[in-house]
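idk why but the lab printer keeps eating my pages so im just putting this in chat instead. protein + NAP:
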Amino acid sequence: MNRVVIVTGGGRGIGAATAKLLAAKGYSVCVNFRQNADRAASTVSAITTSGGNAFAFQADVSVESEVRSLFKAAQSRFGLVTHLVNNAGVLFAQSPLGQVSAERFRKILSSNVMSCFLCCREFINQAGKLAAIVNVSSAASRTGAPFEYVDYAASKGAMDSLTKGLSLELAARGIRVNSVRPGFIHTEMHGDGGEPDRVERLSPQIPMGRGGTPEEVAESIAWLLSEDASYVTGSFIDIAGGK
Ligand code: NAP
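predcted complex ->
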């Protein structure tokens, strides 16, 4: 089977680790990015240097027309898109919910939920059998992230409902939809939230005593996409060191 995957937000962090791992497992990978072309190019270069197939494509996945272009580009390069990782997401500065503007809340929902919906819809309207989706949610959907990112947590909660509902709609077609919920993972996203060393600060509160790596998250994503998980759908894997 020709396995073709789109990894949204594949230029850095969890997306880049996932793109590299999937390429090493034989997938042809479309590395989507929004603005950071250099980082996406280095993900692609790491893959092709190791003998894999990949290309980078710029698209803001919260915009319908750009999602269409993304899928068209992946299809014309590699053929039917068989797998999808909805990884793109944003986080804004830590703030209690009472000080969050309506504009910020709208942006969070658009970047984290609308993007997931648009990519899932585009995917399922062209997918064959044996296709699979993994949505990258967050432990925040369970904890609510009080005083820091309730808006972000709410967006991930919406993503979880989408995962559950869509998995049930698609189960009889053989298309599996699952989710990973990472906890504190060492990536640059925490800098966007205003605290680059957040994972180190919170490590003592994590039962395993440390933050996770993007590669550890990528392993679970790759398993959920694979035929090794052929009877798994509508499921959530918490990758949070016991938190
Ligand atoms: P990251 O390093 O900030 O990477 C996020 C990527 O998403 C960036 O490459 C960015 O691309 C891309 N992106 C954002 N909005 C986009 C859009 N509208 N269209 C296309 N690409 C977009 O973050 P990360 O930590 O790897 O996080 C990846 C996912 O894991 C996110 O969904 C995040 O919520 C989730 N997560 C992370 C953690 C953690 O502790 N790190 C914990 C739980 C869940 P550009 O750079 O090109 O803008």
